[in-house]
């Protein structure tokens, strides 16, 4: 039984959609932070190099890690939603 299934085996579509939306929104947020920090390093803008004004600056490799993590999360959400759609269509076709 998957995490999003109830005890009777029915899938909560609302919960799945909510988690997919959260995944996509958080991935966009992470991508924007990574891009902002990289732009701060490219153009020498100190206020973009750190997430909070009083904190230490984020390094370029950390910003790249955030950027790639956000892209991977976005791609995973897209591929997972397509897989669910394809598997639902496939099950409907067979049964």
Walk me through this protein's architecture.
The chain has 95 residues and is mainly α. The chain is built from 3 helices and no strands. The chain is elongated.
What's the structural blueprint in terms of helices and strands?
Blueprint: H1 13-43, H2 46-49, H3 60-94
Q: Identify low-pLDDT runs.
A: none
N to C succession of SSEs: HHH
User: What gross morphology would you assign?
Assistant: elongated
- Which percent band covers the strand fraction? under 5%
What characterizes the major β-sheet? none
Broad structural category: mainly alpha
Rg, please? Answer: 19 Å
By DSSP (H or I, 4+ residues per run), the number of helices equals 3
How far apart lie the N and C ends?
21 Å
Number of domains: 1
Helix content estimate: over 70%
Number of distinct beta strands: 0
Mean pLDDT: 81
Primary descriptors:
95 residues, mainly alpha, 3 helices, 0% strand
Short description:
The protein is mostly helical. It is built from 3 helices and no strands.
């Amino acid at each position: 039984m998957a995490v999003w299934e109830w005890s009777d085996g029915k899938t909560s579509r609302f919960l799945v959609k909510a988690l997919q939306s959260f995944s996509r929104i958080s991935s966009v947020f992470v991508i924007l932070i990574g891009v902002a920090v990289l732009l701060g390093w490219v153009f020498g803008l100190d206020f973009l190099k750190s997430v909070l004004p009083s904190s230490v600056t984020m390094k370029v490799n950390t910003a790249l890690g955030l950027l790639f993590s956000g892209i991977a999360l976005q791609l995973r959400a897209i591929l997972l939603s397509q897989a669910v759609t394809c598997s639902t269509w496939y099950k409907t076709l067979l049964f």
